[in-house]
Specification:
The complex is a heterodimer of chains A (317) and B (238).
Chain A: H1 3-22, H2 26-51, H3 59-76, H4 84-103, H5 109-128, H6 130-133, E1 139-140, H7 152-174, H8 176-186, H9 188-193, H10 198-224, E2 226-227, H11 229-232, H12 235-248, H13 254-273, H14 278-292, H15 296-316
Antiparallel strand pairs in A: 1-2
Helix pairs in contact in A: 2-7, 2-8, 2-10, 2-12, 2-13, 3-4, 3-5, 3-10, 4-10, 7-8, 7-10, 8-10, 12-13, 12-15, 13-14
Chain B: E1 2-13, E2 16-27, E3 31-35, H1 42-49, E4 57-62, E5 65-66, H2 72-78, E6 80-83, H3 95-104, H4 110-123, H5 139-151, E7 157-160, H6 169-186, E8 189-194, H7 198-204, E9 207-212, E10 215-220, H8 222-226, H9 229-236
Parallel strand pairs in B: 3-8, 3-9, 6-7, 7-8
Antiparallel strand pairs in B: 1-2, 1-4, 4-5, 9-10
Helix pairs in contact in B: 3-4, 3-5, 4-5
Classes of the chains: A mainly alpha (317), B alpha/beta (238).
Chain lengths: 317, 238
């Protein structure tokens, strides 16, 4: 790691820890929490979609299962909904294995279509299994441990989750698992030919990705204290998660982080500044990034940086 | 010692018999060429041995154990490496990382994998381009990378599908040298599929098998096969 990178990471760390004191307005803290939540979601999705190249459009299912786990624990038992952070990934595990078992038989766009179906199925189950989920009415959660008015504790909890997720992605990208997943993304036949059990490693990526997404979902339930199908299980949520990674840079550790920060911040800013036109501006931003930086922000910055470096070198030569 | 034993291997695609009752064997440390015109069934034979396709009939034994019905990665881990006719570099990764992915298959830990990858790059003469992206390499180097990635898995036998296709004369000479060194320095057996570069076949092979329409029409030492009447007929017509 270069000195400059270490220094900027340290500065970022200080900023993140101090942020709730720098931004005391509740709305600003709320936006920070949302950004970190989406950093988690984008990074978690990226393990499967970016590293392993399996473009899932069904991640809302894992998010929703995590959120409902927390909500149902609180409504059906005396336990705190915070237990959802641990229970969510456990509940999501059999779902992920079943999804992998069925969907990994399909490749490319067919896999993506099948994940949309999974997302919709989970949404319909949540909508109709009224005894458990409250159906369309949803579940209201009483806040536990923290009062719900002070946002600072929520900020630190999601900060730990987000940093943990990004750190895990970094470790994966540097290890055997990361290389195997990239090999699978580039060419499954080649991966098989050098001894990689593609099904096993795709499933591993899915389980990691789904579990982290469920943790984020459980946090969401504890933070918003209300869970219903159209909020935690819509297809548009899956799409939003994918967009962050694509805009930031698929298959890179920093990509989903940058994408989440840019898209979430801009969507909040646009909503305030442009009001009804906010989605129009948001859409235009997406088109611009995808047109001019097809490899995402990370890839685009790398190119800019390289060409600047080249100019400096040729100038000094 | 017998390493690979293929008996009565047959593959049908509908009405087409791509491989027809083929039997042959490869000894440890031996380089065998399978030659035959385009469509003779060479690639199908490789796909059957490496588990990418299932034989309609027949037996394939590697180190005495049947490998029919095993999945490709299991066969790779058992010690059969392969390259593809159409080279498939992992294009988002560097040359070093391409080889590293192969090395992880057999290595116990990260350090060992990196060591194997570096050694393999040196052995195949790719050391100087280790940091380049695989996607930008010229054809000759891509073919070599294909071999290096497979070599890094530590195979006992390596199947080279159309090793010479797309190579210019100097590249193909380098490829020939590399294949010879596989046997002479590493003791790795090889089965090379070659379409029609006879001087290559003559110089690398201990033994030659000639396929035509999925059937073996000749087998023997390179000089003997080159003068075989039926072989000449298959290649040149009557």
């Amino acid at each position: 790691m270069s000195k400059r990178l270490a220094l900027s990471l340290a500065l970022l760390g200080v900023f993140l820890v101090a942020a709730p004191f720098l931004f005391q307005a509740r709305y600003a803290q709320h936006v920070l929490i949302l950004v970190l939540l989406y950093v988690t979601l984008g990074s978690a999705w990226n393990v499967l979609g970016g590293f392993a190249g399996q473009l899932s459009l069904g991640h809302a299912a894992f998010f929703g299962i995590g959120a409902y786990s927390a909500a149902i624990i609180a409504s059906k038992s005396a336990f705190s909904p915070w237990w959802g952070l641990a229970v969510g990934p456990v509940v999501v595990l059999p779902v992920a294995v079943a999804v992998g078992w069925i969907c990994f038989r399909l490749r490319g766009p067919y896999f993506t279509l099948s994940t949309i179906a999974v997302g919709e199925m989970v949404r319909l189950v949540a909508l109709n299994w009224r005894e458990l989920t409250g159906g369309a009415v949803g579940v209201v959660i009483r806040p536990s441990i923290f009062s719900g008015t002070d946002k600072t504790p929520y900020y630190y909890i999601i900060l730990v989750i987000a940093v943990g997720t990004v750190a895990l992605c970094y470790v994966i990208s540097r290890r055997k698992l990361g290389y195997f997943l990239q090999a699978i993304r580039e060419d499954e036949e080649t991966a098989e030919s050098i001894g990689i059990d593609t099904i096993r490693y795709k499933l591993t990526a899915l389980i990691i990705s789904a579990s982290l997404t469920a943790v984020a979902g459980a946090f969401y339930a504890n933070y918003f204290l209300f869970v219903e199908p159209t909020v935690v299980l819509p297809l548009i949520l899956s799409v939003e998660i994918v967009l962050m990674s694509i805009v930031g840079g698929l298959g890179t550790v920093g990509g989903p982080v940058l994408g989440a920060v840019l898209l979430k911040l801009s969507s909040e800013v646009f909503r305030n500044v442009f009001q009804q036109a906010n989605l129009l501006i948001y859409g235009a931003l997406l088109v611009i990034v995808i047109l001019f930086m097809p490899e995402g922000l990370i890839g685009g910055f790398k190119k800019l940086f390289k060409s600047r470096l080249r100019k400096e070198q040729s100038a000094s030569a | 010692m017998l390493l690979l034993e293929v008996k009565d291997l047959t593959k049908r695609f509908g009405g087409l018999v791509a491989v027809d009752s083929l039997s042959f064997a490869v000894d440890e440390g031996e380089t065998v060429s399978i030659i035959g015109p385009n469509g003779a069934g060479k690639t199908t034979v490789f796909n059957l041995i490496t588990g990418f396709q299932r034989p309609t009939r027949g037996e394939i034994r590697f180190s005495g154990e049947s490998i029919v019905g095993k999945r490709p990665h299991e066969i790779a881990l058992a010690g059969i490496g392969r390259t593809f006719q159409i080279v498939k570099p992992l294009s988002g990764l560097s040359v070093f990382e391409n080889v590293l992915v192969g090395a992880y298959a057999s290595a116990a830990d990260d350090g060992e994998a990196r060591r194997i990858a570096r050694e393999t790059l040196e052995f195949t003469g790719l050391g100087a381009v280790g940091d380049s992206l695989a996607v930008g390499l010229p054809m000759g180097l891509r073919k070599r990378l294909e071999l290096a990635r497979s070599l890094a898995t530590g195979p006992k036998l390596i199947l080279l599908d159309e090793v010479m296709s797309g190579l210019n004369p100097s590249e193909s000479k380098e490829a020939v040298d590399l294949i010879k060194r596989l046997r002479d320095e590493k003791g790795i057996s090889a089965v090379a599929g070659v379409e029609h570069v006879m001087h290559v076949v003559m110089s690398i092979s201990d033994r030659v098998i000639v396929l035509n329409h999925g059937k073996k029409i000749a087998e023997g030492r390179p000089e003997a096969v080159a003068s075989d009447r039926e072989v000449i007929r298959a290649y040149l017509g009557e």
